[in-house]
Amino acid sequence: MIYLVPPGLYAIGAPAPDDPVVVTANYKMSYDIVRQALSGRNVWLLVLETFGINVWCAAGKGTFGTDELVRRIEATGLAGVVTHRRLLLPILGAPGVAAHEVKRRTGFTVHYATIRAADLAEYLDNGMVTTPAMRELTFTFSERLALVPVELVQALKPATVIILCLFLIGYLFWTPIAGLKASLAYLGAMLTGVAVGPMLLPWLPGRGFSIKGAVTGLAWSAAWYLLAGGNGWGWPVTAAAFIALPAVSAFHTLNFTGCSTYTSRTGVKKEMRLSMPAMGGAIAVSLLLLLAGRFL
Amino acid sequence: MKGFRYLRDATTLELHESACIGCGRCLDVCPHLVFCLSDKKARITDRDACMECGACRRNCPADAISVDAGVGCASGIINEWLRERKIRGVGGGCCS
Questions:
Q1: In chain A, which residues have their Cβ closer than 8 Å to the Cβ of B90?
Q2: What is A188-248 written as a DSSP string?
Q3: Residue A117 CB: number of other CB atoms within 10 A?
Q4: Which residues of B touch A250 (CB under 8 A)?
Q5: Count of domains in chain A?
Q6: B94 vs A136: CB contact, 8 Å cut-off?
Q7: Does one domain contain both A81 and A156?
Q8: A63 and A80, same domain (yes or no)
Q9: Average pLDDT, whole number, for chain B?
Q10: Of A135, A168, A183, which residue constitutes the final position of a domain?
């Protein structure tokens, strides 16, 4: 699959020299969504070279940035194609583009239009005025749900290794059934942290993602206790399950900060400094409990 | 953002009002409605909503805003820490 569109100036419909210029990234999906949102209109589409990365991530890296915009305006001869000097940029491109520098270097005025491409048509119909709704980020249930499969694929590789290790340890020191149960308990906690935590995000208690993940992990521990015949476990195994599984879920939900649209870098660092030792400690205590229960 | 709140007092965002020329660019670019304009000066009304994307600083023609911009992403930060300690990371960063 090719996710790149060649950068340059594109026409949607049959734009005239006084029609608007919309700027986007050369990630195929960004390009397609913008074209779809503006189908049936006459608009110029200036595609920047972001190496197949979406606007938001590329702006953070600086590839959707002032220099590339200036370069692309010059390379396409945009000033000779259109008679006006207005560029419509996605609001989430703003971390990379300094509007006043673009103005100074090219004469073009940057207008930060909307966050979502889907609002572009309404923005144009609204006399190119951004309404508060077009400016506000959202993180709806379906937006979060769409991110879960991506997170899941990324989590699966390390999870497979851990599952195999857990199975082997259970098999060698206890019974094959115990190995299987340990693997499944972990798998459930991982899935809970990757999928359930993010989906229920705004409704879970706490502000930190790890707290939210730990809460769902605790619910999984209880569910697993009921499913896997926990009343026959003995207290060390029970305690280990209720300490380790929430830590696993907490870790994976903490990872969802990378997908979220409202966590600051300072905040995530702060949360990690507090939560990572707690998670590591929980895993260590659980292992000790299991070994003590087995060998003492 | 409606319905979502991250940690309190966890942003490096600072607005130097004496340098502000009141152009309102920061209001245009902030996706979390952190700023408002009053008496021809920008003001921070919702500091805790800041996600440190750096759009305001980048677009401030008066250099009145400072923020240590970056992506708030746990796996990216883990990889950074691993790199600082010269240990090869296992996962990828954010946004590939």
A1: 158
A2: HHHHIIIIIHHHTGGGSSSSSHHHHHHHHHHHHHHHHHHHTTGGGS-HHHHHHHHHHHHHH
A3: 21
A4: none
A5: 2
A6: no
A7: no
A8: yes
A9: 88
A10: A135
Q: How far apart are CA A120 and CA A43, in angstroms?
A: 11
Contact check, Cβ <8 Å, B68/A265: yes
pLDDT at B92 over 60: no
- Position A59 in a domain: yes
pLDDT of residue B71: 80
What pLDDT, on a 0 to 100 scale, did the predictor assign at position B80?
A: 83
Q: What is the pLDDT of residue B94?
A: 52
CATH number at B51 reads 3.30.70.20
Asked if residue A182 belongs to a domain, the reply is yes
Q: Which residues of chain A have pLDDT under 50?
A: none
Contact criterion met (CB < 8 Å) for B31 and A264: no
**A85 in a structural domain:** yes
Q: Chain B: give the shortest CA distance to residue A163, in Å.
A: 17
pLDDT at B83: 85
User: Quick one: pLDDT at residue A183?
Assistant: 96
Question: Hey, is the C-beta of B88 within 8 angstroms of any chain A C-beta?
Answer: no
State the pLDDT confidence band at B96, using cuts at 50, 70 and 90. very low
B70–chain A Cβ distance below 8 A for any pair: yes
Pair A119, A21 in one domain: yes
- Least Cα distance to A268 among B3, B87, B11 occurs for B11
Q: Which domain holds residue A278?
A: 141-295
* Sequence-ordered list of residues with C-beta below 8 angstroms from that of B91, at least 6 positions apart, any chain: A154, A158, B75, B78, B79
Does A184 share its domain with A73? Answer: no
Closest residue of chain B to A207, computed from CA coordinates: B6
pLDDT at B88: 64
Q: What ipTM does the predicted assembly reach?
A: 0.88
Q: Cα separations (Å) of A94 from A102, A295, B57?
A: 12, 60, 10
Tokens of A229: 């015949």
Query: A201 vs chain B: nearest CA distance in angstroms?
Result: 8
Q: Measured between CB atoms, which of A96, A207, A272 is closest to B6?
A: A207
Does residue A3 lie in a domain region? no
Q: Do B95 and A60 count as a contact with CB atoms less than 8 A apart?
A: yes
The whole domain housing B26 covers: 14-84
Residue B65 in contact with residue B16, Cβ under 8 Å? yes
The total number of residues written for chain A in this structure: 296
**Do the chains contact at A136 and B95, CB–CB below 8 Å?**
no
Q: Domain boundary at A135, A165, A193, which?
A: A135
> Over the stretch A196-221, which tens digit does the pLDDT of each residue have?
999 999 999 999 999 999 999 999 99
